Amino acid sequence: MAVYTEVSADDISAFVAEYGLGAVLTFKGIAEGVENSNYLLQTEGGSFILTLYEKRVKPEDLPYFITLMDHLAARGITCPRPVHDLEGVALKTLCDRPAAMVSFLNGISLKRPSFAHCGELGRALAELHQAAADFTGFRANALSLEGWQDLAAKAAPGADSVAPGLEQTIRDEIAWLEAAWPHDLPSGVIHADLFPDNVFFLGEKLSGIIDFYFACNDALAYDLAICINAWCFEPDGAFNATKARQMVAGYQAVRPMTAQEIAAFPILCRGAALRFLLTRLYDWRNQIDGALVRPHNPIPFLERLRFHQQSLSAATYGFDAE
Ligand SMILES: Nc1ncnc2c1ncn2[C@@H]1O[C@H](COP(=O)(O)OP(=O)(O)OP(=O)(O)O)[C@@H](O)[C@H]1O
Ligand SMILES: N[C@@H](CCO)C(=O)O
């Protein structure tokens, strides 16, 4: 259960009073989530999520995340809308942690998204990219090529204990990506962690996108490559080409991609697979005794990487052949 900071009833009542939302009706910790402490809060003024930001989110990045959610919500994206207190402040402090309240979004996240959900996701991702086009904040992607080198230096030595040959695979892949990585693709704000657990649906309709705490500025097509990795492989590791085709079509119906983006797409998929392989490998090999949450298994992303290494054509992912 990921509630790292316990908040007392007195603390929460005093905190909520600063927003003028009436009395607190119910207040309970949310088990899901790894990074922060999250509470579901019902007040006379409505339902909200209260987040206390724990160690893995850098305080200096929080204004970027909060103002981005403000910006996107104002443009009709169904993301959490930060609640501002009576003095207009959204990023506050509670129990010595940075804290914010955001709107509660209805819907459920899916363990087994369908073709239709993948199409919806593609469309919503493109809408998010377009809605953020005039956002003026900037945050570099700490988990792009340079970050992977640093992470690999920490996570890869001895990684053969997780899978034979993994250390060499990582070293070779980074060398390959350094040579191949595209640097001049259309860029802007990307979500950068849009896995199924961060997306809510009501039936087939997408009702919410959450967890903007990896958002940053990078190539837009890279965000779609992350989603292909996160949504279009089945539990047995098989790539689902139909899901990818639907997602790509959904995306392109809103924001048609350039020829350069399409040509680079297989490389971006390799990079995205490596990114999650490395972060998962690091967490897997640095488990903390007594931690509340089990780290994700890195192996599925090694398998995805191997798949992408074999398929150097954009047609694999559902782009029409030139
Ligand atoms: N705005 C929201 N509306 C409804 N539920 C939410 C909202 N924000 C978060 N939740 C719920 O809280 C859970 C944890 O949220 P979130 O994924 O942001 O946590 P986290 O600690 O940042 O974890 P991680 O980054 O590992 O996913 C979600 O799975 C969801 O159930
Ligand atoms: N989505 C990430 C976890 C961090 O948000 C993963 O599946 O590895």
TrEMBL record:
GO process annotations (BP): threonine biosynthetic process
Pathway: Amino-acid biosynthesis; L-threonine biosynthesis; L-threonine from L-aspartate: step 4/5
Coiled-coil annotated spans: none
Molecular function (Gene Ontology), one example: ATP binding
UniProt keywords, alphabetically: Amino-acid biosynthesis, ATP-binding, Kinase, Nucleotide-binding, Threonine biosynthesis, Transferase
EC class name: transferase
EC numbers, comma separated: 2.7.1.39
A Pfam match: APH
Record field: catalytic activity: L-homoserine + ATP = O-phospho-L-homoserine + ADP + H(+)
Residues in Aminoglycoside phosphotransferase domain copies: 27-256
Keyword Ligase: no
UniProt cross-references to InterPro entries, sorted A to Z: Aminoglycoside_PTrfase, Homoserine_kinase_II, Kinase-like_dom_sf, Pseudomonas-type_ThrB
Signal peptide range: none
Family: Belongs to the pseudomonas-type ThrB family.
Protein name, as recorded: Homoserine kinase
Organism per entry: Govanella unica
Gene: thrB
